[in-house]
Design goal:
Layout lengths: L2 H11 L42 E3 L4 H15 L17 H11 L16 H7 L3 H9 L8 E3 L9 H7 L1 H15 L11 H26 L10 H19 L6 H11 L19 H12 L5 H11 L3 H13 L4 H17 L6
Parallel strand pairs: 1-2
Helix pairs in contact: 1-12, 2-3, 3-10, 5-7, 6-7, 7-8, 8-9, 9-12, 13-14
Bound molecules: 2-acetamido-2-deoxy-beta-D-glucopyranose (4 copies).
One 2-acetamido-2-deoxy-beta-D-glucopyranose (NAG) binds next to loops.
Main location: secreted
Family: Belongs to the LEG1 family.
Subcellular location: Secreted
Length: about 350
């Protein structure tokens, strides 16, 4: 009984890719080039009484408009991340538009060939809290200082900073903290940049905010789960949302190449149907099949126990390095993964756990 969660945790790790080898593919999300790269790239809000009012109108339910929010975030934050000196693809926010692009490509936004995001789409609704929310928080923190803008409101999705602070305060606060940190002149000052600083000063606050967005968004969008086209897709979506927690606790780097690696290896390129029975989906690669089979085999009631174990195994920097190796190696060797898992737990006792 007690070993079951450990085994599941290891099995679950199979769906995270090996990070060995380099990925020559730093593919940008679909239509990236067409997305606005500044707020002035959006249309003027017409029908204004004052002629010189240059307020821009952003419709986050248009794929290109939402993609533009990401592009602006990447452009404005890259100079604020010391590890991005060579390229914006090192930006740890790039994982977000990369996931969004996959959702669009696989019709998870229910765009059905158009560039509109359907408000019926559970994925599109979940992504709202990982696009509009960080964007508004970045504006609030002063990272984005450009033309004034208005967001088109749909349903009860908050569309201004004050509204979003009321609706989802924890996530807004954590995202604002992440961006406020970036703006501090001597943030995490040290003589040389290293992976510990990356972990503590950048990945930690980003993942806290990311996880809060998902945690608080899920109940708000639960009514859209039944609109997903199959029970299999429903289980995949909710399973993936929970898995993000485990990846976040291990503080995986979310730069473009790292995210593309698992996205390409393990993410289904289309919506799942009820007659999909992984690992026997002929149009999916072996790794996509394996990943799906595992994700779908996890019972929701195991989640708490698995989280508890993973919390321990990721409680300090040393243990997280091994926890990441667990996630990276399990696909190749469960024995090695088990060894790393034991190492992670051991180091969680040898070194002091992080505060909070
Ligand atoms: C302009 O806005 C007013 C008030 O919101 C509305 O009644 C009118 O139909 C709008 N006109 C156009 C051309 O959109
Ligand atoms: C990021 O870097 C790539 C490659 O250097 C460049 O083509 C692109 O314009 C840059 N900016 C964005 C927002 O992608
Ligand atoms: C992305 O993150 C991985 C893992 O930390 C790292 O090895 C790689 O160098 C990073 N890539 C870029 C372009 O920063
Ligand atoms: C769009 O695609 C989704 C997912 O395949 C489907 O459920 C929905 O009915 C489609 N909508 C229209 C208007 O075709």
């Amino acid at each position: 009984m007690t070993t079951t969660p450990v085994l599941i945790l290891l099995a679950l790790a199979l769906i995270i890719p090996s990070l060995n080898g380099s990925n020559p593919n730093e593919r940008l999300p679909t239509f990236w080039d067409e997305a606005p790269s500044s707020i002035s790239g959006y249309p003027l809000a017409s029908n204004r009484s004052v002629k010189q009012d240059l307020t821009r109108l952003i419709d986050p339910w248009l794929y290109i408009d939402r993609l533009g929010l990401y592009k602006i975030l990447i452009i404005t934050t890259t100079p604020l991340m010391p590890f991005c000196s060579s390229s914006n693809v090192s930006n740890i926010l790039f994982g977000l538009p990369s996931q969004f692009g996959w959702q669009f490509d696989s019709n998870r936004l229910f765009s059905n060939g158009s560039r509109k995001i359907s408000t019926d789409s559970w994925w599109g609704a979940a992504n709202y809290y990982l696009s509009v929310i960080p964007f508004l928080a970045a504006v609030d923190a002063g990272v984005i200082q450009q033309d004034s803008f208005e967001l088109v409101q749909r349903e009860n999705f908050c569309s201004s900073s004050s509204e979003c602070f009321r609706e989802i305060p924890e996530a807004m606060t954590l995202w604002r903290t992440f961006f406020t940190n970036l703006r501090q002149a001597n943030y995490c000052q040290s003589n040389s940049f290293d992976n510990r600083i990356m972990d503590r000063c950048y990945l930690a606050p980003m993942w806290s905010a990311h996880r809060a967005s998902i945690r608080y968004a899920l109940p708000m969008i639960a009514s859209k789960i039944p609109l997903l086209p199959s029970v299999t897709e429903q289980r995949f979506g909710v399973g993936w949302a929970h898995l993000v927690d485990f990846i976040g606790m291990a503080r995986e780097n979310t730069n473009l190449s790292n995210v593309l690696k698992y996205q390409d290896a393990f993410f289904p390129y289309r919506l799942l149907r009820n007659d999909d029975h992984p690992p026997h989906c002929p149009d999916f690669s072996r790794t996509v099949n394996q990943g799906l089979e595992l994700l779908l085999s996890i019972k929701p009631e195991w989640n708490q126990e698995m989280l508890r174990l993973w919390q321990r195994a990721t409680c300090n920097y040393e243990s997280r390095q091994d926890a990441q190796r667990v996630l990276q190696i399990a696909a190749i060797s469960k024995t090695t993964a088990l060894k790393y898992y034991s190492e992670a737990v051991l180091k969680s006792y040898l070194h002091e756990c992080d505060q909070n």
